[in-house]
Amino acid sequence: MIKTSWEGNCFLNFFNNKATLGNVNKTIFKSKSTSPYKLLKSTHDQEGRCILPVLHTAGGLVGGDLLEFTVNLEKNSKVLLTTSSAQKVYGSIGRSKIKPEGSFSKQKNIIKILDNSHLEYLPQETIIFANGLYDQKFKVSLSENSSFLFTDLIRLGRSSSGESIESGVFRSKLEVMRNNDLYDDWEYVDQIELSKVSFEAKSGMDFMPVFGSLIWICKKDFPKSKIKNLEENIKNIFNESANNLSIGILENGISVRFLGNSSQDARKCFFCIWKQIRTVCGFCEPKYQGVWPLQDSMNY
Fold this sequence. Notes:
The chain is mainly β and 300 residues long. It contains three helices and 18 strands.
């Protein structure tokens, strides 16, 4: 039997090389990966943060694909992970006479963030083609003085071509666990499913094809007043936005939902919020990455 699906994996281990290079405080990494994963050239910003784009060389996912993405941040590391292109999930339902109901393509993400480390995982959007089936899971564990920023941008169907998700399904589950010396504690759990029903429902997406989530989990002792000010700043910036944006304060961080018609608007929105988060954390201002499309001015 000829195997037609991918079973790829990528392992990334980031660590601070200050111990080996004197006063140079820079995050570097070791990696191991199989197709379809490919790592592009990494760079560093003025804080020594490692900026690494990941490429999916197959051009998209089909039913039955299984991917595993494992990321470890050792102590005192700063990392920005992104992707160089949108993830495409092709139609699966009705494509096979053996399995006409289709098969899910799946991605499992395991992330561990040790003491005083900060991960920003900002991939480009995932496009669910008509009748595409996709299931992703994230398991994140982080220490009390570490942080995690994650954006997830989903487009249901190629709306510019008049295509909707049809019978396709997008599923996502995010679990964030806080580790400490006495016990592990749940920090955040989020589970969603998007389908034709939710896309068309007035109380759901109301035919707006772009759905986005931004989750920021800060360190445990981060001042609550700064989190509140961050929420107020974001609301003030987007007060007159035509997109539907909701912001909530978590016990340690914020949660943002975006709903609209434009992936470009969503990217601009999340980029602006990312800048606000960097500012409140005392980190350097982020720059729009060259591997991202639409190199227009980010006027927010």
